[in-house]
Amino acid sequence: MNQELFKRITIDPDICHGKPTIRGLRYPVENMLELMASGMTVEELLADYPDLEKEDFLACIDYAAKLTQIKSIYSLAS
């Protein structure tokens, strides 16, 4: 993973219930990935979200790609 892109994805329990977001803003990675999966282009997303940058969307894709490489997921005891 490109470390510069990785720095754009942040997790803060006080923002969006601790979901990964873009640069600490209230843009969950999950939502941006859903928009891209629906067919929106990065150019369209940039027009709709002018405070985001192309690299933010690349970071979302890179983050999702890394999640697919997880070998196992374990439930944590509550």
Give the topology:
Blueprint: H1 3-6, E1 9-10, E2 21-22, H2 29-37, H3 42-48, H4 54-67
Antiparallel strand pairs: 1-2
Helix pairs in contact: 2-4
Description of the structure:
- The protein has helices spanning 3-6, 29-37, 42-48, 54-67, and strands at 9-10, 21-22.
- It is mostly helical and 78 residues long.
- The chain has a two-stranded antiparallel ribbon.
- Helix 2 crosses helix 4 (54-67).
- The longest helix is centred in the last third of the chain and has 14 residues, at 54-67.
- The chain is globular, with a radius of gyration of 13 Å.
Brief overview:
This protein is 44% helix and 5% strand. With 78 residues, the protein is mainly alpha-helical.
User: What string, H for helix and E for strand, traces the elements in order?
Assistant: HEEHHH
Q: Poorly predicted ranges (pLDDT <50, ≥5 residues)?
A: none
Alpha plus pi helix count: 4
The CATH homologous superfamily is named Winged helix-like DNA-binding domain superfamily/Winged helix DNA-binding domain
> What is the rounded distance between the termini?
31 Å
Number of domains: 1
Strand arrangement across the biggest beta sheet: 1-2
Please state roughly what percent of the residues sit in beta strands, choosing from under 5%, 5-15%, 15-25%, 25-35%, 35-45% or over 45%. Answer: 5-15%
What name does CATH use for the topology? Arc Repressor Mutant, subunit A
Query: Mean pLDDT, as a whole number?
Result: 91
The CATH architecture assignment turns out to be Orthogonal Bundle
Q: What's the quaternary structure here? A: single chain
- CATH C-level class is Mainly Alpha
